[in-house]
Design brief:
This protein is mostly helical and about 325 residues long. The chain is built from 14 helices and 2 strands, in the order αααααααααααββααα. A two-stranded antiparallel ribbon has the order 1-2. A hairpin with a 4-residue loop joins strand 1 (about 270) and strand 2 (about 275). The structure holds benzoyl coenzyme A (BYC). Benzoyl coenzyme A binds near residues 154, 219 and 225. This is Phenylacetate-CoA oxygenase subunit PaaA.
């Protein structure tokens, strides 16, 4: 344990009303963040830091859980047993990611029931991307390549997030997302090199998923209300626009290898900046989706509530089992 860490654990809320004590904890917290040390669950942290983490981690967890729906839509219609097995494994991975993330949020003192309640009542968000429909089999490829690709770009810096449990959850999630991205790329490559109809289906999916994928990174930096504080706290390590640019730079050559085009007539290499220029994003569409007016918002949340209600017996059985075998109270889990 380093010096900064040694002084920052809050002994059962001892700082209480003691302002001088709080100031000391605050200094230790700031020093730990400045020294790139990890903040751990029992360390003192500012209320706003805790609230920001709960907001972001919960939104992230909800995205993983809701994100199962668009792809699960294709499990029964996958074109081969191999593709079906791969897709089932991927969707199951997403469920696992959601569970690690709910656990990370729980270390901040917010229970899973509360988080799910906020999701179901619309008080917490999930990623905008999952409010778009999966119309063809090629959409499974486009989600893997673009949506998981965007997720990795965003999440690799989160492996260095200042909050220990979130950063550690990200390490494993990123490894799994890399497989997901590869499977999507491989699926699209097979379609792109297939019949003219298959190629057209792959192109159509990329045309529909490209712009919503760019929106996943959040609003432009000058409209991102949380970025400055989250970066100062080292929760976020890169800005929304920086990550979006990195994603575009990665995708353009990959699209060329796939033999597919990206639906942006303004896309061009900027020699001077060493990056691809890209066209204007329709931010009106993004904010409308966030307000609940995307093509599938209602369908997604209705399905989620139904799954939760229908799963009540599983939670009850799990709680009863825990009481019987551990003598504990069980604590029903989602
Ligand atoms: N969608 O100040 P800003 C996956 C909200 S799932 C919806 O920039 P921040 C996968 C934002 O919350 C991957 N809302 O916020 C799963 C804020 O509103 P509130 C999901 C968005 O937090 C299954 C407001 O806009 N990844 O990989 O500094 C299958 C202003 O934004 C979005 C994560 O969740 C959006 N796209 O930065 C396949 C990553 N963008 O909360 C794949 C973790 C912004 O004040 N999250 N908003 O009401 C983050 O890195 C950050 O939270 C964000 C936004 C970059 C998304």
């Amino acid at each position: 344990m380093t010096t900064a860490a040694a002084h920052r654990t809050d002994p059962a809320g001892a700082y209480g009303e003691d302002t001088a004590g709080t100031a000391e904890f605050e200094r230790a917290f700031d020093a730990a963040v400045a020294a790139d040390e990890r903040i751990e669950p029992r360390d003192w942290m500012p209320d706003a830091y805790r609230a920001t983490l709960v907001r972001q981690i919960a939104q992230h967890a909800h995205s993983e859980i809701i994100g199962m729906q668009p792809e699960a839509n294709w499990i029964t219609r996958a074109p081969s047993l191999r593709r079906k097995a791969i897709l089932m494994a991927k969707v199951q991975d997403e469920a696992g990611h959601g569970l690690y993330l709910y656990s990370a949020a729980e270390t901040l003192g917010t229970g899973r029931d509360e988080l799910l309640d906020k999701l179901h009542s619309g008080r917490q968000k999930y990623s905008s991307i999952f409010n778009y429909p999966t119309l063809t089999w090629a959409d499974v490829g486009a989600i893997g390549w673009l949506v998981d690709g965007a997720a990795i770009t965003n999440q690799v810096p989160l492996c260095r997030c200042s909050y220990g449990p979130y950063a550690r959850a990200m390490v494993r999630i990123c490894k799994e997302e890399s497989f997901h991205q590869r499977q999507g790329y491989e699926l699209l490559l097979a379609l792109s090199n297939g019949t003219p109809e298959q190629h057209a289906m792959a192109q159509d999916a990329v045309d529909r998923w490209w712009w919503p994928s760019l929106m996943m990174f959040g609003p432009p930096d000058d409209e991102s209300q949380h970025s400055a504080q989250s970066m100062a706290w080292k929760i976020k390590r890169r800005s929304n626009d920086e990550l979006r640019q990195r994603f575009v730079d990665i995708c353009v050559p990959q699209a060329e290898s796939l033999g597919l085009t990206l639906p942006d007539p303004d896309l061009r290499w900027d020699e001077e900046r060493g990056h691809y220029e890209f066209g204007a994003i329709d931010w009106t569409e993004f904010w409308e989706v966030l307000k609940g007016n995307g093509p599938c918002n209602e369908e997604r949340i209705t399905q989620r509530r139904r799954a939760h209600d229908e799963g009540a017996w599983v939670r009850e059985a799990g709680a009863a089992y825990a009481v019987k075998h551990t003598g504990g109270t069980g604590g029903a889990r989602a």
